[in-house]
UniProtKB/TrEMBL annotation:
Entry-linked InterPro entries: Cyt_B5-like_heme/steroid-bd, Cyt_B5-like_heme/steroid_sf, Cyt_B5_heme-BS, Ig_E-set, MoCF_OxRdtse_dimer, Mopterin_OxRdtase_euk, OxRdtase_Mopterin-bd_dom, OxRdtase_Mopterin-bd_sf
Annotated Cytochrome b5 heme-binding domain residues: 76-155
Protein location: Mitochondrion intermembrane space
SMART domains: Cyt-b5
One of the GO biological process terms: sulfur compound metabolic process
Highest taxon, organism lineage: Eukaryota
Protein name, entry field: sulfite oxidase
Similarity field: Belongs to the cytochrome b5 family.
EC number: 1.8.3.1
GO cellular component, one term: mitochondrial intermembrane space
Signal peptide per UniProt: 1-15
Lineage, opening ranks: Eukaryota, Viridiplantae, Chlorophyta, core chlorophytes, Trebouxiophyceae
Pfam name, any one: Oxidored_molyb
């Protein structure tokens, strides 16, 4: 318990000095937003301490005051890069440096939202190059959190400069609504979505987790391997010549589409997507099932193989790449049309969308359609990637970052019904004296489920008007599927 208070005291002391007065430490306890560790090792957001009562605040304050002098002393301490390098494990403590500061983040390891394993990559060294990559850290809140762990400065300050991992980003269309620059994330203005059945490539939403890799399509190859299979490497030309070209029109949607609406109910973390993190394109490429069969995946392998993992060429400086997986039955199903796409709306796949080849898994959340495809692995386990294990999962509203048990929920695969009004736009004023207002929008369902009906209300649910849906002419909407239109649709209705 004492250790917890010491940690708290030191955090307070830093915050107090930042504010210029020692007594600010007390106010800081109840107002600062950040993460503290409790004795039971669980995560706790500082704002939760608000309710902990004045006794706790007072006790922490008493401890913090004698520590002020010690903090000042510790934080003016200087360390060499070798000193930092010696602290590269929880047993020896985990130290990192950032912009010339030295931080002991041992207590933060298990609380890191990006995972302890990732933080350990920087153990004993600089986090600067990692944060240049994962630029979502570059906020005042994260910086303040880090400052709570400062123990001193590097001798001579920050000595090394790091290249910009985002130096090779492609040019983007100015109409995209940018949600984050690095990594680049942007959505389509919704009025385009309700007007065109296919979203133009330049206006298609972009969801990147890392810098866009520079890929030479001449030397690009995808490796395919797995239990009981031969390992093969296929070039772009192989994919085009050895396998029948298969075209599928499908909607891809970011798992966080319309997250900003949640914030109206309860504040949530993550990019504040509005309703434009969704789009429909005509993709063409080789069927994944054909490629897996070519590499020797047979029905006999199915006991051994339960998931098809994908890895992209987008990686951070440690070589950790983006990865995801889908169930093998989805990958093998001829009906489910999973393809390794080399064309998007009749053009080569644009750099932001996975040039030269990406996975397109219709009906499944966009995070599994891995871009800049490098490796396909048929495996008993699903992908161990952060984005499969500790992201893109769904929990009850009472689960938060402080009590989430990632292992208790499956990774999102097929998505549920989604719909949004695009015209008039959110916040737009309409003339109440008009007898009629035209409302346009989209509706979509994952798993190949078609939309049967869309109902719209203008009076909080008192009365409903059933919308006219634009027909969706999918390959799957042929005569034999008319009896079951809900099973074969991959794109949204307008
Ligand atoms: C002591 C240093 C670090 C601190 C204080 C820190 C803090 C944080 C915080 C507060 C978040 C949540 C951000 C948000 O969702 O808005 C986060 C997420 C994350 N961090 Fe760190 N981090 C540190 C080091 C690192 C390092 C070295 C790496 C990479 C090797 C890393 C990779 C990530 C990733 C991948 C995420 C999750 C992003 C996502 O879910 O999209 N972090 N970190």
């Amino acid at each position: 318990m004492l250790l917890s208070f010491l940690r708290l005291g030191m955090g307070l002391c830093t915050a107090a000095r930042q504010r210029g007065v020692a007594c600010a430490a007390f106010a800081c306890l109840s107002s600062r937003s950040g993460i503290l560790k409790q004795e039971d090792e669980s995560l706790m957001l500082i704002h939760k301490w608000k309710g902990a009562g004045s006794a706790l605040t007072f006790a922490a304050g008493i401890l913090a005051l004698p520590l002020l002098a010690q903090c000042e002393q510790e934080e003016s301490a200087t360390y060499s890069q070798e000193d930092v390098a010696e602290h590269d494990s929880p047993e020896k403590e985990v130290w990192v440096s950032y912009e010339g500061g030295v931080y002991n983040v041992t207590d933060f390891l298990e609380m890191h939202p990006g995972g302890a394993q990732r933080l350990m990559m920087a153990a004993g060294g600089a986090i600067d190059p990692f944060w240049a990559m994962y630029a979502q850290h570059k906020t005042a809140e994260v910086r303040e959190l880090l400052e709570g762990y400062r123990i001193g400065n590097l001798v001579g300050g920050a000595q090394q400069t790091y290249g910009d991992p985002y130096a090779n980003e492609p040019k983007r269309h100015g109409a995209l609504i940018v949600r984050s620059q690095q990594p680049f994330n942007a959505e389509t203005p919704v009025e385009f979505l309700s007007q065109a059945k296919l979203t133009p490539n330049d206006l298609f939403y972009v969801r990147n987790h890392l810098p866009v890799p520079k890929v030479d399509s001449e030397s690009w190859k995808v490796s395919v391997k797995g239990e009981g299979m031969r390992q093969v490497e296929l070039s772009l030309e192989d994919l085009e010549s050895k396998f029948k070209k298969h075209t599928v029109t499908c909607t891809l949607q970011c798992t966080g589409n319309r997250r900003d609406m949640f914030n109206g109910v309860k504040s949530v973390q993550g990019l504040e997507w509005s309703a434009g993190a969704i789009g429909t394109a005509e993709f063409a490429g080789a069927r994944l099932s054909d490629v897996l069969a070519y590499a020797g995946l047979t029905e006999d392998s199915l006991g051994e193989v339960e998931h098809i993992q994908f890895e992209g060429l987008d990686s951070d400086i440690s070589g950790t790449c983006y990865g995801a997986s889908i169930p093998v039955m989805k990958a093998l199903s001829r009906q489910d049309d999973v393809i390794l796409a080399y064309e998007m709306n009749g053009q080569e796949i644009p750099p932001d969308h996975g040039y030269p080849v990406r996975v397109v898994a219709p009906g499944i959340t966009g995070a599994r359609s891995v871009k800049w495809l490098a490796r396909i692995i048929a495996h008993r386990e699903e992908s161990g990637s952060h984005w499969q294990q500790k992201d893109y999962k769904s929990f009850s509203p009472n689960v938060d970052w402080d009590n989430v048990d990632w292992g208790s929920a499956p990774a999102v695969q097929e998505t549920n019904v989604q719909s949004a009004i695009c015209v008039p736009q959110q916040g737009q004023t309409v003339d109440a004296s008009d007898e009629e207002i035209e409302v346009q929008g989209y509706a979509y369902s994952g798993g190949g489920q078609g939309i049967i009906r869309v109902d719209v209300t203008a009076d909080d649910g008192e009365t409903w008007i059933t919308a006219d849906l634009s027909p969706v002419h999918d390959r799957r909407n042929r005569q034999q599927f008319k009896a079951q239109p809900q099973m074969q649709s991959y794109r949204f209705c307008l």
